[in-house]
Write a structure and sequence with these properties.
Chain lengths: ~450, ~450
């Protein structure tokens, strides 16, 4: 039997052991945001370190950071083969409110083919499946490519120390591509890969018209009202076609190949579902694009919050001194989030009436990214998914951001392949988070196929 | 000697006694908003009742209300003469922060021609002067007209029970005009009368686009943003000329006689002063009108507060479900505040995009009012002020509201003459409130002249 077939047989024969080990991993409350769980975080990192050691890697260690440690491993003894950086995280969200869990979040429980536990889907279940896949392969031969592992413990708190770590270890982390296992498929039985993510640039604007709040009777009608002026500025940021008016905003936005539009049009979608998910009665957005294009491959701008003047109960006749808003743009490849502040600044310079003071605070963000759908590493994933699911993969663009993907693209010049087996209704970040166990096992098989495909 | 001359002599001869009595009155902490001062409130009402009794009125009594009592008095034995309703209030604002007072707020202290005490200017000093003037007159003859007193104890808490009291006593309160003593002059040595007040209609708008807040990555660009839509609505409420766009808003606004515009143009004013007072760098408002016209005799609309979405520290990528604002119009005679809700409702019906839910909450308000500058009662005041100050009176329109003036106009069909002697820098509602003592004494003389003119 080939290494592939043996590994698949091995994985199928060890389901019980794998489940038991997964229960072990999910029992560790590695909540990164809570100081009282610091020992659990380290215990979880050590658990993974032991797993990586069992793979026969040449180096496995915990890389200390000012926060939680990064589990690092490598094996680079496949000359001429690609180098894959496997990314994952072992920290989880807090589990409260605990009373909304049917079974305790750190006592993993199997019901109806699901395993319920905090971190089951986001994302211990995914990195576990990848490790088990490689473990199966190493029983029957060498690792088919060069591999590096980077499993961080701070994803749920914004990967606070990851950027510095990458900056300080550019050479160490060089790779041909990143296998990001923090990912999911489209639906039960329907493989899918997210190939495009939006970036973010987030700002706060303050607009001041007076030194202090005024009496609206004493001064109303004779001076500028900063809420009126901020409303005008917000209104002016979109044109009648729903396009963002910031000069230069679309300059770097890539043209959409017809092939890609066709593929997006094939994705399961209905207005009714979208309205149901958003709890809205109408759709909106940029003219000339479908909803999935608007959210996936077109940039947008939203005011995220606004405040000014009197906001308490009842009536207070105040003419406010100042108004504020938070505002962000969602960016697509190849827009650079670092270009946006200057555009907004130019817009404000041009449009804030003389005599008003304004400030623009940059909350920073990250770039959008798109992965080459025709790269050999993407084809390898598509083929692996076809083999295990017996279905073609749906490639979909996603409206949100995965900062680490942009970071890897920017700092390591490496594309990410987002291959994981979470489902949209796994309830990540909420109570009763779960993973569909058939996905765990299919996931192990898919990773086995995938790694063999990549190793060629 | 005539009654007039004798009364003036009497007033001049009794300055010390008057000052001592004023100190008595100002020593009573009649703070209407604080329950612990309820006995003081009643003590103050009794003090005034005794004063009215000393005038020889035919009826003097405390009219009980669900809150603080109203001091009521009347003398109607001057057939063929006008009936004057004297309005005032005996309650005062709280005096805290106490440590900002140079001398205790309820230990009236004379320094440099001012008497410092809470209520000195707002408005015990005024109603006191009016009573002392009538007292002087009654030493030497009959009251020259029919008189009614209505001195309430709840002005500083929104005249909570006054409206009901008036509704239940329409006949009792019938009069030819109201002498409202809760008023001031233009500047030291410069008599002035406010002849026009703006009304108010105050609202709250809620605009909902989604059942709950959405993730701005997951949905941004595909659904409506209620903050954007509220901003458009706010922006649409003014045209490029600074006029309010609500259909019908200006229909009942009176035309401005050239004579009145000329008079307003004569009032002391400079842009620099106005900017200084408002703490602004630029002026704004309706095209074609001066600042004093804009604030005094033209209506306006201001958003008083706005809120929606994420307003905390940092960045949260929320696409808000709902946005709110508080919004009010300042109205001039003869606009009716009860007409405005329908205008706003029509505007929202016309302009809120389909699929958004909105609500309009009416915080109510009051009508604007303007007093006939050429009525005999106004002329009587102008003449009295000319006699005592040796200067022509400045008639000025005011941007704020005095709800009781609108209430009297609406319910009793009676104009108010605003005659009092507060100064703009008396510091009402703040620490170190004061009254300029020469104004107290000139005030008594002016009221003497005024009453003789009216009875004339």
């Amino acid at each position: 039997m080939s290494q592939l077939e043996s590994a698949l047989d091995y994985a199928r024969a060890h389901k019980d052991e794998h489940l038991a080990e997964l229960v072990d991993l999910l029992s560790i409350p590695s909540v990164s945001t809570l100081p009282e769980h610091k020992p659990d975080i380290r215990r979880c990192a050590e658990w993974l370190k032991a797993q990586l050691e069992s793979l026969g890697l040449s180096t496995v260690e915990l890389k200390e950071t000012p926060g939680h440690p990064i589990v690092y491993g490598e094996w680079l003894e496949a000359p001429g083969k690609p180098t894959v950086l496997v990314y994952g995280h072992y920290d989880v969200q807090p589990a409260d409110p605990f009373n909304e869990w049917d079974t305790p979040p750190f006592e993993p429980t199997v019901r109806d083919d699901y395993i319920y536990a905090r971190g089951a889907s986001d994302m211990k279940g995914q990195i576990f499946a990848q490790i088990k896949a490689l473990q199966a392969l190493t029983q029957f031969g060498e690792i088919p490519f060069n591999i590096k592992y980077l499993i961080e413990g701070e994803e749920e708190i914004g990967s606070e120390n990851l950027e510095d770590f990458i900056d300080n270890n550019i050479d160490l982390l060089q790779c041909d591509f990143v296998l990001n296992t923090d990912a999911g498929i489209y639906a039960k039985g329907q493989p899918g890969i997210t190939y495009s993510l939006r970036g973010l640039a987030y700002f706060e604007i303050e607009l001041r018209a007076h030194q202090k709040d005024l009496h609206s009777g004493r001064f109303g009608g004779t001076v500028l009202n900063p809420i009126h002026e901020l409303s005008k500025l917000i209104t002016g940021l979109h044109d009648a076609q729903g396009r963002v008016t910031l000069p230069g905003f679309y300059d770097k936005v890539r043209d959409l190949p017809q092939e890609e539009r066709d593929a997006i049009a094939q994705l399961p979608y209905s207005d009714e579902d979208w309205l149901g998910m958003s709890g809205s009665k109408v759709l909106g957005g940029e003219e000339g694009y479908t909803t999935l294009e608007r959210v996936g491959v077109r940039p947008c701008l939203d005011v995220n919050g606004i405040w000014g003047g009197f906001v308490g109960e009842g009536a207070k006749t105040v003419l406010p001194a100042v108004a504020h808003c938070k505002l962000s743009t969602r960016l697509v490849a190849h827009q650079n989030h670092r270009d946006i502040p200057a555009m907004l600044e130019a817009y404000l310079k041009e449009n804030v009436p003389e005599g008003l003071d304004w400030s623009l605070h940059d909350h920073s963000g990250g770039p959008g990214s798109t992965m080459d759908r025709h790269s050999p590493y993407m084809k390898a994933a598509e083929d692996a998914l076809r083999t295990t699911y017996g279905k073609e993969t749906l490639f979909s663009p996603e409206g949100g951001s995965i900062p680490v993907v942009g970071m890897m693209q920017e700092k390591l010049d490496s594309d990410s392949i987002l291959l994981g087996f979470a489902l949209p209704d796994d309830g990540i970040h909420g109570p009763n988070e779960r993973q569909y166990l058939p996905n765990t096992f299919t996931g192990i098989e898919t990773y086995i196929h995938y790694m063999m495909n990549v190793g060629g």
